[in-house]
Structure formats: structure tokens, C-alpha cells
Design a protein that fits this description.
- It is a single chain.
- This protein has 314 residues and is an alpha/beta fold.
- Helices cover 42% and strands 21% of the residues.
- The chain has twelve helices and 13 strands.
- It has helices at 28-40, 43-50, 54-68, 84-115, 124-129, 131-141, 154-162, 209-214, 225-234, 247-255, 269-273, 304-312, and strands spanning 73-76, 79-82, 117-123, 146-152, 168-171, 180-194, 207-208, 218-220, 242-244, 261-264, 278-280, 282-283, 288-296.
- The strands form four sheets. Strands 3, 4, 5, 6, 10, 11 and 13 form a seven-stranded mixed β-sheet that branches.
- Helix 1 crosses helix 4 and helix 6 crosses helix 12 (304-312).
- The longest helix is centred in the first third of the chain and has 32 residues, at 84-115.
Length: 314
């Protein structure tokens, strides 16, 4: 029969103490050591397998014995063997370690699933004219990542991030929505454009900011970053000529001659080159803006989101 610790060796409040299991059950490292001793028949061999020193292994076994209030290992020049109590504890320990291995495998599966998908929310201009290139670069780096993209105005992007429906967002307004952290990833400028037949094309002088502010324009809906920047720059806008929910729709209406529009330079490069739209100079107003990546405050992007963020700033 194996030896038992003397009663005085049991610490106050040890084996039969109420309270947290963390104070009454040995940690996984100690249980793994006990299993190694049982398998190898040597405390020194068990220590080497686990990458710790023999004194550290001996100390860990003694600490476990004090915690449980029973002797677990008989040490002798011929090696180490389990006591009867140690054999029983080892059987229980094996079940705990197996459960921990299952827990670890499940957590890894969750990490793998998380790292194989990326949910992006972006305001219209960024979604249409910048994100395609960034996502192609991400695919080259992470071909197995499934990406979903939700395009909407800046307010909708913030809502999706704050509700946990997106991992990373991109906005183009003047301010960062409440509850989000951000970093500038690009710069943009808004320009006034009209169809070639519009009277503003024949102007000899630049358009005054006050005239632009008083002119009904083809505009994006409220909540869009483009409209927010324009409204702030001009100190207010006339009632919209037409209000549309996408950059493409605004551009198409301007090309069709419906009226003047204010759009991102990114959005109208081809139309300007082909003279389907004409740029109208404006004086007395600055229409530059920052384009930002955003994420919930305190939750720095990780995995594919972090990699996409690095690609936007490369």
C-alpha cells in the first residue's frame, strides 16, 4: 500500500474546503506531469518530456500532494511509481486532460472558422472603387478566406459594426461614428460634374460656393459620407433635385443630363476621360476628405480583417 501524508501535512482549507474548484483541483500542467510519471516510471523522464527541470517537477508533485492531501508518487533510486491513491488520481486526471484536449480542439475549430471568413461593411464610394482592388490583394494572401461585403452609407456601416454583423468597416464622412476607432487609409476629393450640354460647361469663371449651395443638386441620401462632407463645406444645401441611394445612380443621373452632381474623383475618372461628364471648377470651398477604416472601440482588427487593413495602407 502507498504511504499517506501525515494529517498535519494537509494545509488548512485544502481537500475538503468549500469554494472555487480552481483552489481545490490541480492545474492542467500538474495533471499532465502526473500522467507522464505514470507512463514513463520516472520523474526525471517526465520532466524532460514536458520541458521542465527535475527540481521543478518534484516541486510541482509536492505542491499537488499538499493540495489534495494525499501522497501520489513514491520516489526511490530505482525510479518513481504511483501510490495507490496516485493511481486513482491519475485515472481521474486522464479524463480531465482528455476533456481539455477536446476543449482545445473545439476552440481551434472556432478560430479556424473565424479566420476563414471576413465580413466587410463599406460606404458606397469605397465599396465600388477601392475595395475590389484591396480584396483581390487579400485573396492572393488568403485564398481560403470567404469575404462578404455589405455596401451602404456611413451610418449603416457603423450600425453593422456595432451590432457585430461586420468585422471591419470603411467610411468617408467628416467624423468617426460614435463607438468606433479608426485610421485614415486614403484621401479623396469631391468635384462638381455636369453633362456636356449643361450651361455650367460654358462658364468662364469658377462657380462660387454660394451658388453651388443654393443650386438643387443630384444628391446621395442623408447619412452618406459624401453628402455630409458637402453639407458641412457649404454650410447647408438647397433642397435636392433628386435624392438617390448609390454613387452609381447619382452618376448615371448626371450623365443623363438631369442636373449637376458632386461626386468623388474616384467615381468619375472614366466619365471625365470620355467627356460623358465635365468637371466644373468651384472657388471658395475645400471639398477634400479622409477615407477611414473603422472598427468597434477597443477591438483592434484581427485575422483577415487585420490583413485587409494592412493592405489598404500598403
Amino acid at each position: 500500500m502507498g504511504k499517506e501524508l501525515e494529517p498535519q501535512a494537509r494545509p488548512t482549507g485544502a481537500a475538503d474546503a468549500p469554494g472555487s474548484l480552481a483552489h481545490r483541483v490541480p492545474d492542467l500542467g500538474a495533471l499532465e506531469l502526473l500522467l507522464a510519471v505514470a507512463r514513463l516510471g520516472s520523474l526525471g523522464a517526465a520532466a524532460r518530456e514536458l520541458g521542465i527541470t527535475q527540481p521543478a517537477a518534484s516541486s510541482r508533485v509536492r505542491s499537488m500532494e499538499r493540495q489534495l492531501g494525499v501522497a501520489l508518487v513514491d520516489r526511490s533510486p530505482r525510479g518513481s511509481r504511483l501510490t495507490d491513491a496516485g493511481a486513482l488520481v491519475t485515472d481521474w486526471a486522464r479524463r480531465i486532460v482528455e476533456a481539455a484536449e477536446a476543449f482545445d480542439a473545439g476552440a481551434q475549430a472556432l478560430r479556424d472558422r473565424r479566420d476563414s471568413r471576413l465580413r466587410v461593411a463599406a460606404s458606397m464610394t469605397i465599396a465600388e472603387y477601392l475595395l475590389p482592388g484591396w480584396l483581390l490583394a487579400l485573396r492572393a494572401e488568403r485564398p481560403d478566406t470567404a469575404v462578404s461585403l455589405h455596401a451602404g452609407n456611413s451610418a449603416a456601416v457603423a450600425e453593422r459594426l456595432l451590432s457585430g454583423e461586420a468585422d471591419l468597416g470603411f467610411v468617408e464622412g467628416l467624423t468617426v461614428p460614435s463607438g468606433l476607432d479608426s485610421v485614415v487609409v486614403a484621401h479623396d476629393r469631391l468635384i462638381v460634374v455636369v453633362a456636356p450640354g449643361h450651361p455650367w460647361v460654358r462658364r468662364r469663371r469658377a462657380l462660387a460656393a454660394s451658388e453651388l449651395a443654393s443650386t438643387p443638386l443630384i444628391l446621395r441620401e442623408k447619412g452618406s459620407g459624401t453628402r455630409q462632407v458637402l453639407d458641412a463645406a457649404l454650410g447647408g444645401l438647397a433642397r435636392p433635385l433628386i435624392e438617390l441611394s448609390s454613387t452609381t445612380a447619382v452618376k448615371a443621373a448626371a450623365v443623363g443630363g438631369a442636373g449637376p452632381a458632386v461626386l468623388s474623383e474616384l467615381a468619375v475618372g472614366d466619365e471625365l476621360a470620355l467627356r460623358r461628364l465635365v468637371r466644373v471648377p468651384v472657388e471658395g470651398v475645400r471639398l477634400a476628405r479622409d477615407l477611414r477604416a473603422v472598427w468597434p472601440t477597443g477591438h483592434r482588427p484581427a485575422g483577415p480583417a487585420r490583413e485587409l487593413l494592412s493592405l489598404t495602407r500598403g
